[in-house]
Each structure stands twice: as structure tokens, then as C-alpha cells.
Amino acid sequence: MSEGSNRDIKEAGRSRVAVLSSHIVSMASEKDAALAAAAAPVPSDSPTIFDKIINKEIPSNVVYEDDKVLAFRDINPQAPTHIVIIPKVKDGLSGLSKSEERHCEILGRLMYTAKLVAKQEGLDDGFRIVINDGPNGCQSVYHIHVHLLGGRQMNWPPG
Ligand code: AMP
């Protein structure tokens, strides 16, 4: 099999797992979705469901957008306000653990966008940001993203 078709099959597999993960997440736990996603042996630049959201191939509830980042409401909210903030260009950042020094600017941009969106959403009493990484971190979509959670009292330690 050619390298190209092998890659296509892997990408299709990743895409299917990502779609499946997003659909089953309301039935199964976040942990199950994360383990299902981690089971797909694909490269860090493979497309995910977030690429479809960026390209407007599937609908999402966008709350903020600029030339670098996109923020939209999580399909399976874990708090009254739950927003996912992503870079429009992944550039190898499938997760925080894959970051390199050249990513510092976009990482800072994601943080600052969380602050902007928190203000826009009226989270004046506080909020939480979360970055899940890898199977142990319950990451289910391998395109780096910041979760912005608010609108209720958070607990500590987190689960
Ligand atoms: P993580 O588990 O940290 O990788 O976070 C991925 C998040 O993406 C989960 O909270 C999912 O609910 C969310 N998600 C997956 N698919 C969609 C979608 N189509 N629209 C909005 N959020 C999604």
C-alpha cells in the first residue's frame, strides 16, 4: 500500500474516532472518549473534528473569532458556560505536550482569548481554564484547545 493511501486511511480513522467520540460523549464518560481517541495511532497533524468546525463544514456556536483563534460552545457542557478555544492553524500542536518554543505566541493568544471571552460571557466572579493532555489528561480531540468553564462554583481538587 502506498504511503499516501496509508495516511488517508489513518486520517479517516482519526476522523471517525473524533466524530464518534463527540457523539458518544453524552452517554459515556469523558475518560472513555479520551481512551477511544488515544487508541487511534495517527500523526499529530492529522485532521480532527475541530478542522471541520474551523472550515465551517459542521455547525458550531461560535462566540469569538479572529485571524488566529476560534472560540465556540462545547457540545457537551460541563458548566453553565463551557467554551472551547482553539488555534485556527494547528501547526503540530495536537496537545500541549507537543508544544515547542515557536508556539509561545499562539499559546499566549489562547490564554488571552480565554480572558476576553470570560469578560464577554460575564464571568466576573471567576472562571476556570483547563487544558487536557493525553489519555491520562482525558484529552479526546487532538488539536490543542483551552476549555473555559464558568457560571458555577468550581471544586478542588478537580476530578
Ligand atoms: P478534550 O476532551 O479536552 O479533548 O475536549 C474536547 C472537547 O470538545 C469536549 O469537551 C467535547 O465535548 C468537545 N467537542 C467535541 N466535538 C464537538 C463539537 N462538534 N462541537 C463542540 N464541541 C465539541
From TrEMBL:
For the motif Histidine triad motif, what are the positions? 143-147
Specify the HIT domain's residue ranges. 49-159
Active-site residues, as the UniProt record annotates them: H145 (tele-amp-histidine intermediate)
What InterPro entries does its record include?
A: Histidine_triad_CS, Histidine_triad_HIT, HIT-like, HIT-like_sf
A Pfam family this chain is assigned to: HIT
| GO molecular function per UniProt | adenylylsulfatase activity
Name the record gives this protein: HIT domain-containing protein
